Each structure stands twice: as C-alpha cells, then as structure tokens.
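We modelled the chain as a single entity of 365 amino acids. Its sequence is:
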Amino acid sequence: MKQNIALEKVSRFMEIGLLSSAKDLLTGNFTKPDYLKVLRKTVVPIASILLFIGLWHLGAKALYNREANFKIENALETQGPEAADELRKCIASGDISCQPNTLPSPSQVWDSYKSLITDHNRIAADKAAFKAKTADINATRLANGEAPITYTGRPSFIDQIIMSLKTVFAGFLLAFFIAVPTGILIGLSPTLKSAFNWFIQIFKPVSPVVWYLLVFMIVKTILIDSSEDSSFIISFISVGLCSMWATLVNTAMGVSTVDKDYINVAKVLKLGPFKKVFKVILPSSLPLIFTGLKITLSVAWMVLIAIELLAQSPGLGSFVWEEFQNGANDSNSKIIVAMFVIGIIGFLLDRIMLTIQNSVSFNAN
C-alpha cells in the first residue's frame, strides 16, 4: 500500500503517465477502458522517445556521411588520389584523429556521459587524496591564522552542475527578496504603481548580456581592492536582476486584485498594516506570487548559461563554452550531454516549484 502511494506521488510530481498506469496494473485496478489510457500514457510516450532517438541516429549518420564525403573530396582535389584513399581508410577504421566532427549519435553521447562520470570519480579521488595530504599542513596554517591550502585542479562535470545550482538558487533568492516586497508595496499603492510602471516596462525586456555588463561594472568597482574571485557574485546578481520581473509583476497584480471584502473584514477587525498584509493580502495573493516565482526560477535557469559563459564562472555555461572552443572529437557529444542535463534540471526545478505552489494554495488537492 505504501509503495502504491509513493508511486502515485512520484507520478504526480513528474507528470509521467507511465508511472500511474504501472500503479493501476500492479494494484489490479485495470478495466477494459483503461487499455486506451495505457496506450496514450505509456505506449505513445515510449514510441515517441524511440522515434526521437531513431531520427536523431539517422540525422547524425547522414551528417557524418556528408562531412566524411566532403573531407575525402577535398583531399582528392588538394592532395591527390592517394591522400583521399588514406583518408577514406582512416575514417573507416574509426581512428579519432580523422573522424568528421559533426552532430554526435545517441551512442556517442552516451559514451561521453560515461566518460564524464568516470572523470568526476577520478577528480573526486584526487581531491580526497589532496585533502588527506594537506590535512596536517592546513591545521598548522589555521592555527597560525593563515589561509588553508585549497585544491586548484580542474572541476569535474558534476562540480560544475553543483556550482550552477548554487548560482541559480542565490540569484533566485535575490530576486525573491527584491521582487516580493517591492511588488507588495506597488500593489498596495496606486501612486507607487504609476511611479514604477515605466521602470518595469523599460528594464523587464533587457537582455541578460546587458544585465551582466551592468553588474560587472558595479561589482568590479566595489571589489577593486579585493583579490577574491568575483565571478560568482557577478553571476548570481545578474541572474537575480534578469529573472525577478515576473515575480514583481505577479506580486503587484496579486496584491492589487485582492477581494475588497477581505480588505473590509480587515478594517472591521482593526488589523494593523503588517497584520493586514500577512494575514489577509499575502494569503490571497499566493497563487499569483508562486506563478511569478515559478517563471522567475525558469528564467533564472535559462539565462544562467549565458551569464556563466560571460563571467567565466565554473558552471555549466563555462563547460559548454570550453567544450565548444576545445574542438575535440568528443566535444560535441559532451555539449549534447550538458544540453540534456540542463533540460532535465530545468524540468525538475519547475516540478519542485509547482509542488510547493500546490501545497500552499487553498485549492491544493
């Protein structure tokens, strides 16, 4: 029974019909009309995934053959028949040095994923060995008031994912603490709404690149005498400023459209300004506020990659850019791995926010 409840919760969280259909099948709650539901929720998604992988494989193969033929023809024209034959044999042998560098196949992406995990395990082992090696030295340095020796090796793919998550959550919190209080004030006061409307309309559509440059100018000036790396600070502030507008607008709209009967009840009860906000206005505005927060988190995750790329912060953005510049045979595969990871994390963040929204809403099931 507990397993069925857990399966139902996971199914609702992920919004994957396959899990709920499997639950019905396991519990025996399976009637004749349910077979069509199984086809729609289980067979169709699986078929679409297989179709996507098949089309991807065929497209990658076509591009591979096109690039290979181009390289062979170019070698024939510039270096002669012998060089063209050698290149053809080299490509057929699978030698990495001469393979066409184009859209990778699904199997190549999977191999790159396993390679990144293996690389992470190796770097984690190096970090552990470094920590054990410098433990005594760092204890002495800390006792003398000196900074400890830190590991300065290359971060792994998992490390970069964790850094991106830290950056996006820091930016999200910044957006929350700026947008929600400001939105409440704007929603409560028509005068403030008129005063800030032009500001919101002008700065809301500004590109994340421009926000990054603005934050870069300010932070670099403030930290001009500091030797600390400011890339993380620049990144999360840029993410927060770029993504806060949905929460600001939705909060102001939610507060300004609170049912007047609730406001009148607050007046009858002689609630103070703070009690009125926290006991009447905010609870009534929560659905719109959380809708804005969900959009803010999605926007923050989307703009993060571009901002990390510009700030050279050690996250997924810099990982993608470094692989693109690297130009190695497996670089394209690693970029595709990062693309899937970015998409999956974005989906999970959206599900988390929706779950929180449902849990605090009055109409939550």
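As a brief sanity check on the tokenised model: The chain has three domains: 2-96, 106-143, 157-360. The first helix runs from residue 2 to 14.
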